[in-house]
Specification:
This protein is of the alpha/beta class. The protein folds into 2 domains: 10-115, 3-Layer(aba) Sandwich (Aldehyde Dehydrogenase, Chain A, domain 1); 121-211, Aldehyde Dehydrogenase, Chain A, domain 2, CATH 3.40.309.10. 37% of the residues lie in helices and 19% in strands. It has helices at residues 20-31, 45-61, 77-83, 99-108, 131-140, 159-175, 184-189, and strands at 10-14, 35-39, 69-71, 92-95, 113-115, 121-125, 152-157, 179-182, 194-195, 209-211. It starts with 9 loop residues before the first strand and ends with a strand.
Length: 212
């Protein structure tokens, strides 16, 4: 038994204003013998073009045709939808975007697709965790970029840690303008926490909101 790289052909990547996606996608596609078409956002157009120019030059330096990397200059919704229907030209489309983008592209696409689905990122605070470290990690994972796909949505807290630090911890989150929903036990410990339902624990909010 051995690992083999099997090229699919032309892979189209739909993404939002996250230029880091370019490097990851190009690296994986070129390494596995695929060509790639990137369709990003107008909000990161100049950064995208600069990164792609660098990557195309690198391919040229290594004797690989730079045209294996293509970029959709007009990444409008209309053009992305058109790309998703090019079943004679595109062998696979990977869609990285919000719920609405994924839903609409899935409906319109004629090419095979892989989607980056909705998620709910968790942080677990163990009973042995330092209070300052736990606060820093949770706040940093939510406050600077609440719309990032890896922003935390749910915090799970060991009951022994909560018995010592819970109220102080919650107050530190409130100071950051975070809206907090929690289970019945959390509400018993802090009266300003709002009641959460089962859907809260499955949803990706893209908002300064925390679940406990």
């Amino acid at each position: 038994m051995k690992k083999k790289y099997i090229p699919l052909g032309v892979v189209a990547i739909i993404y939002e204003a996250r230029p880091s996606v370019i490097i990851d996608s190009v690296g994986i596609c070129i390494r596995t013998g695929n060509s790639i078409i990137l369709a990003g956002s107008r909000h990161s157009l100049n950064t995208d073009k600069t990164i792609i120019t660098i990557l195309r030059n690198i391919l040229r330096d290594f004797g690989i045709c730079p045209d294996n990397i293509q970029y959709l200059l007009d990444g409008s919704h209309k053009n992305k939808t058109t790309l998703a229907r090019q079943k004679e030209l595109v062998d696979l489309m990977i869609i990285r975007g919000g719920v609405e983008v994924v839903s609409e592209m899935t409906e319109q696409a004629l090419v095979p697709i892989i989607i980056a689905g909705e998620g709910n990122c968790h942080i677990y605070i163990d009973e042995s965790a330092s209070y300052n470290m736990a606060c820093d990690i949770v706040i940093n994972s939510k406050v600077p970029r609440p719309k990032a796909c890896n922003a935390v949505e749910t915090v799970l807290i060991h009951k022994n840690w909560a018995s010592k630090y819970f109220n102080e911890f919650i107050n530190s989150l409130f100071k950051e303008k975070i809206e907090i929903f929690g289970c019945n036990k959390s509400i018993e410990l802090h009266s300003n926490i709002k009641p959460a339902n089962i859907n809260h624990f499955k949803h990706e909010f893209f908002l300064p909101l925390q679940l406990l």
